[in-house]
Design a protein that fits this description.
The protein is α/β, with parallel strands linked by helices. It has 7 helices and 9 strands; from the N terminus they run E-E-E-E-H-E-E-H-E-H-E-H-E-H-H-H. It has one domain: Nucleoside phosphorylase domain (Rossmann fold, 3-Layer(aba) Sandwich), CATH 3.40.50. Helix content is 27%, strand content 22%.
Length: 290
């Protein structure tokens, strides 16, 4: 058995706090990749430890393309997090996923272009598998928690990660539907990839705020309507986090993701860059010490 759960909660647009958090304390966590989006909020719900990070910073001050995703994931790993539940606002590309619905994502199409997407590089190369990018166990708990919280939830969705910060053109929105994407957002990549490189099981709950702009009969999305729906979604999201944590088994059995770097590191030990290895101390230290 492992040492127990420490759940990292990454709160996106609409989730800036956690209800029911005991012994709550904001702490600064420094990383070799720079500063994370904000201080991290440490606490617990019952016997389960939580570490909360507001993805855009408190007050929503950082746009998607300027998020330091590597620092965010490193800070969570460095803080003892064992698993990540990410929550994000998303647009819908499907008629049957209207605003107000929640979606547990299981696949991604990455269309981001300006973001560093790996902890590894020259001097220490690694190739993790992203065939199944989320943790099935966590995703199951997440879907059940949304229902417990009174939300409507769909599972098995494909998330199109766009660069932003502008919303899609109608042509893009229609193209993404043709590709088989169900929802669209700006923050899941490279967050999901970096979580896998850090050997952190990851699940994503998307909160639908709008229909993007593919519907001919509907006006293009505007920020005001997104914000209004975000606030409504946020109430369910906060209840979802509490339900998710309270439903976790008392013991955390190991996940295959916990040791995924064992089959991903490729650089000859004699050729590894000591400076890069030092930066990887938290995210890959376990595997590099083998």
């Amino acid at each position: 058995m492992s040492d127990g759960w420490t759940i990292g909660i990454i709160g996106g647009s609409g989730l800036y706090a956690i209800d029911g958090l005991e012994d709550a304390e904001w702490r600064r966590v420094d990383t070799p990749w720079g500063q994370p989006s904000d201080e991290l909020l440490f606490g617990r719900i019952g016997q389960i430890k939580l570490v909360f990070l507001p993805r855009h910073g408190r007050g929503h001050v950082i746009p998607p393309s300027e998020l330091n995703f590597r620092a965010n994931i490193d800070a969570l790993k460095r803080s003892g997090v064992t698993d990540i539940l990410a929550i994000s606002s998303i647009g819908s590309l499907e008629e049957d996923l209207p605003p107000g619905h929640f979606v547990v994502v299981d696949q991604f199409i990455d269309r981001t272009v300006h973001r560093v997407s790996s902890f590894f590089g020259t001097g220490m190369v690694a190739h993790v598998s992203m065939a199944y990018p989320v943790c099935e166990r966590l995703s199951g708990f997440a879907a059940a928690a949304v229902e417990t919280a009174g939300g409507k939830v769909a599972t098995g969705a494909t998330y199109l990660a766009m660069e932003g910060p502008q919303f899609s053109t109608r042509a893009e929105s229609l193209l993404y539907r043709d590709w088989g994407a169900d929802v669209i957002g700006m923050t899941a990549m490279p967050e999901t990839k970096l979580a896998r490189e850090a050997e952190l099981p990851y699940a994503l709950i998307g909160m639908v705020t709008d229909y993007d702009c593919w519907r001919e009969s509907e006006a293009p999305v505007e920020v005001a309507e997104v914000i209004a729906q975000m606030h409504k979604n946020g109430e369910v999201a906060r209840r979802t986090v509490e339900a998710f944590v309270k439903a976790l088994p008392s013991e955390r059995t190991p996940s295959p993701i916990d040791t995924c770097l064992d089959v991903a590191l490729i650089t000859d030990p004699a050729k590894r860059d000591p400076a890069l290895l030092a930066k990887l101390d938290a995210v890959a230290g376990r595997a590099l010490r083998r």
